[in-house]
Amino acid sequence: MAVVRVRQHVNPLSQKYQQPVEPPDWQQVYARSGQSLHLDIGCGRGVFLLQMAELYPEWNFLGLEIREPLVEQANRWCDERGFTNLHYVFCNVSNSLDPLLRSLPPLALQRASIQFPDPWFKKRHQKRRVVQPETVAELGHYLPVGGALFVQSDVKTVAVEMCDRVQADPAFCPQNHGEWLPDNPFPVPTEREQSTLSRGEPVYRALFLRQDLPQIEPTR
Question: Is 193 helix (H, G, I), strand (E, B) or coil?
Fold first, then answer.
């Protein structure tokens, strides 16, 4: 596969990325638009989803990425393989996640993953991180009860922040009970995951399920 080289980091707060994406016609995108959907946020080159789509034709897969050349390349790879259960969208998740999820068929979204997001180490840049309370709230709104959210990073402070923000939302219940998951629940590792593990370095993983929220009785 020919590889397109692009900038490693893109500032999602810059003016260039403030226009929300127009959702595609999902019936044109997927051969079976009603299949369960796995959403991968910040999918990079999209290799993880390419392999997942081949392994699980009964699922649909959607990758979101802010670096447009990577999205164009990934969709070319998808077309070359003839996959009809995989698509990539160029967008800024901070303003496009809600309209994209709102446009999906009801209950299509069943699981989401956020893997090795840009760490933005400098404190003044941390507001650029993809996992913000608003992102978690939108996923909690559209994932059905029992739907899964998987996060992982090779930067412990980033993984802790992601988990703290997910756990702060009452829609999600952690499945690893305060411990990091020892293994990836998916059979396909990302490229960054493979590279990290090959160096003998740790990966910090957590899995959350969308839980049924208790009904609050109105006050009299």
Answer: helix
